[in-house]
Amino acid sequence: MHCTKNITSDLVWVGADDRRLAFFEGVYGVPEGVSYNSYLLLDEQTVLFDTVDKAVAHNFFENVAYALGGRKLDYLVVHHMEPDHAATIEDIALRYPEAKIVCNAKIKDMIGRFFPTDLSGRIQLVKEGDTLCTGRHTLTFVMAPMVHWPEVMMSYDSADGILFSADAFGSFGALNGRIFADEVDFMHDCLDEARRYYTNIVGKYGPQVLNVLKKAAALDIKLVCPLHSFVWREGFGDFLAKYLKWASYEPEENGVLIAYASVYGHTENAANILAARLCDLGVKVKMYDTSVTAPSFILSDAFKYSHLVFAATTYNAGVFSTMEQLLHEIAQHNLQNRKVSLIENGSWAPVSGGLMRKILEPLKGTEFVGDTLSIKSALAEGQLAGLDALAAAIAASVKGE
Ligand code: FEO
Predict the structure, then answer these.
(1) Contact (CB, 8 A) for 228 and 35
(2) Cβ-count burial of 138 within 10 angstroms (0-12 exposed, 13-18 middle, 19+ buried)?
(3) Which end of the chain is more exposed for a tag (fewer CB within 10 A), N or C?
(4) Average pLDDT, the chain
């Protein structure tokens, strides 16, 4: 049975939630599910904006058929070819043989590679600034390369001030019956998952995101319709401000993220003592065990906080694997402008500190605070002064002293 939501008098959400997916893109856990958004515009001509992941194809086809109410589909606008939105393009094209596929040249190439059916004769190519009038509405196409793939584009409807923003302004998390961000306390209840989505999916491409945000600033936007999560009709400025920080690699908060990798608890013990000292000094601390928490959650908080402490044991003459994976993820996502401190451990040849430094040093704007604390097996009584000194150096840096 269909399950649609009205966005405006002539725009309908025809997407679906997926709460069974274990790992989005095969790597990011989605304990709160995810939504795949598709929108149908019922103007003099009908326009479907993007499709959905194959996991929810059945619900999607029912929704589109219901919302069309027997009308034909005139256009399918494709903004992004990642299969969480594009997997059902071929099915839609076959179900609605009169529909033209509106997209740019890069998207056309990808359609040709992803699907066995030759859809090239159905394609209407557009480029930056081109328009499509469908009756009351006129769509203007805005190219948005690398937000999140190179072919990505957005559409702006000048009649109702709607930005169809592709992956931008999306989030992990199912909609659970809601559709507008103002139906929940988004900044309190949903921001962590929105940050985790942005930083892991698009975080590497901050400059490209800023370019698109500059273009969008020139538009009179009343509604933002992303491909995942809620539609924005009010309060968007607060979320946009977060995007500007994330894309600029500016921390949201002065505080310390401590991530540790500890086999038998001795590295963890040093991390705990450091956290206790920092709290005594009035510094906000968030802690993660890299063997327990997946990298996507820790990376997200690495974008949030100004100061990062990594404490890891040496393992196979390298960095313990869960920490090594986290640090490579952080480096691959291009995190910048963070203050970093290190603790290493090793019972006979501690080398993890130098190796962690080597991964993080090339990141633009990285500054190391305090000396690397080197533990052999367990923190020695005589090393407490060194730990206190590290805590003092970090606290002074957090407070800008
Ligand atoms: Fe939601 Fe880049 O796809």
Answers:
(1) yes
(2) middle
(3) N
(4) 97
Pocket lining: 148 vs ligand 1, CB cutoff 6 Å: yes
pLDDT of 148: 86
State if residue 82 touches ligand 1 by the CB under 6 angstroms criterion. yes
Phi, psi torsion values for 23, nearest 5 degrees: -135, 115
- The CB-side HSE value for 321 (13 A sphere, CA atoms) comes to 2
Residue 318 has pLDDT above 90, yes or no: yes
Q: What does the CA dihedral 368, 369, 372, 378 come to, rounded to 10 degrees?
A: -130
Residue 250 phi, psi (nearest 5) = -95, 135
The residue with tokens 């052999």 is 376
Q: Is 85 in the pocket of ligand 1 (CB under 6 A)?
A: yes
Between the CA of 85 and the centroid of ligand 1 the distance, in Å, is 7
**For 90-125, how does the pLDDT look when each residue is reduced to its tens digit (9 = 90+)?**
999 999 999 999 999 999 999 999 999 999 999 999
**Ligand 1 pocket, residue 80 CB under 6 Å:** yes
pLDDT 10s digits, 207-245? 999 999 999 999 999 999 999 999 999 999 999 999 999
How far does the centroid of ligand 1 lie from the alpha carbon of residue 323, in Å?
A: 27
Expressed in angstroms, the distance from the first to the final Cα of the chain is 61
Cα angle vertex 20, ends 19, 22, to 5°?
A: 110
The b-or-e profile of 214-237 (16+ CB within 10 A means b, else e) is eebeebebebbbbbbbbbbbeebe
Q: What is the pLDDT of residue 331?
A: 98
User: 199 CA to middle of ligand 1, Å?
Assistant: 13
- What is the Å distance from ligand 1's center to 82 Cα? 5
What domains are there in the chain, each with its CATH number?
A: 5-247 (3.60.15.10), 254-398 (3.40.50.360)
Give residue 154's Cα distance to chain centre.
17
